[in-house]
Amino acid sequence: MSAAASHGTDPFAETEDQQALRALAREVADRELAPMARHWDETEEFPQASWDAIRKADLFGITIGERYGGMGLGDIEGTIVLEELARADVSSAILAQLTFNGPPRAIEHLGSDALKDKWLPMAASGEALFSIGISETEAGSAVTHMRARLTADGDGYRLNGYKNYVTGGHKARACLVWCRFPGSEGAKGIGAVVVDLEAPGVTMAGTHVKMGLRGTSEAELAFDDVYVAPEDVLLAGDPSNSDSFKTLISHINHERCGNAAMCTGAASGALEYATRYMNERTIGGKPLADLQGLQWKIADMATQLDGARLLLKRAVHLAGPHGTPPALETAMAKTAANLAAKFVCDEAIQLLGGYGFSREYPVERAYRDIRGLCIGAGTVEIQRNFIGSQVLRGARTTSPGWRNPLIG
Ligand SMILES: Cc1cc2nc3c(=O)[nH]c(=O)nc-3n(C[C@H](O)[C@H](O)[C@H](O)COP(=O)(O)OP(=O)(O)OC[C@H]3O[C@@H](n4cnc5c(N)ncnc54)[C@H](O)[C@@H]3O)c2cc1C
Q1: Mean pLDDT per 10-residue segment, the chain (408 residues)
Q2: Which of 53, 241, 344, 372 has the most crowded Cβ, counting Cβ within 10 A?
Q3: Is residue 49 within 8 Å of 36, Cβ to Cβ?
Q4: How far is the CA of 208 from the centre of ligand 1 (A)?
């Protein structure tokens, strides 16, 4: 792709290449994802046709380095594609999210050459799905309470632990497992390893039964004395400090921006649907769109959505082509996108009246899907804890070319 840009005065203006990527993702979403979205939701089948369509369009590789068969693009392009896919079907968009912002990104940024050579070509070509195992039954928000642990075995380790809510874990080829290295306590000594899910000792114990995101299951994975070779260590935990844990946490900012992009995408789809409906649906000979009370709903929906999209653009633009989005701006973007999507999808249901409540119309599905995104990748409450404590400490947000003088 050429680097030609058409910036004008908009600091977030998309380049011609980015516009072309958006158009391609929208075409795939409209043609292949949208017609099947209800089917995946009703049947809870894995959206294989979506996987095949995303793969055929070569979209899985966009954030993976060219050396491994990808396009070497960054978070801006990742969010563009995720927005467009989620506008049609969030369950399908999550497949791309796991590749763009899940283990492959962590391996590329933090891993050894051996790990990159082993896994990245598979990720870029869409040959394999990857999953993330952080949460445990008693360690979700309280992640430093995790129990998954490595014990030394020769040059390598043995992994014992149980991870729940592993998105796509039932279909994935590998899982990035956060775990304790020998001697670890609290946040100290937490690191991460990449586990081949075909290895002896790995069991897929089940999948959660959920209200939304029903095409892509969240799996429960048990690791029983699974051998972890030294070359499978992504980031070793040192029991004397929490450096590796902090690095892993900051890397989640990619996933949080992807989560926010799926929210703004799904909310855009719901807003578009509601707008069209209001123009077509007549009551007593007049379209719903003529009712000022309902116009105000549309105004609030559009305003919240735009606000969230701007915060998200700021976070991913600050990351630059190969960096990581900054924590405070990312937390604000995720919070705003989660809340905007919840509000917009809820109001879209209301605007469609009884039809909005029907599973024959897409807006209630969008609501159920984004509801899960308000919990995954760090809940809204956890983002608020972080934002509040940072602001109270005098932290200031940054935008491209501008530092916020008001906070702090
Ligand atoms: C759709 C979906 C996909 C997911 N995918 C993955 C995945 O791929 N890999 C993975 O490892 N995990 C995944 N998760 C798990 C997710 O990260 C956890 O559910 C989340 O971190 C919350 O943890 P919990 O469920 O244990 O809730 P808890 O931590 O028990 O929280 C319960 C409630 O208390 C609030 N709360 C907790 N602590 C505080 C606090 N200190 N201050 C204020 N409020 C607080 C929470 O916000 C929440 O409202 C996924 C979850 C969902 C819903």
Answers
A1: 56 96 98 98 98 98 98 98 98 98 97 98 98 98 98 98 98 98 98 98 97 97 98 98 98 98 99 98 97 98 98 96 96 99 98 98 98 98 98 90 73
A2: 344
A3: yes
A4: 14
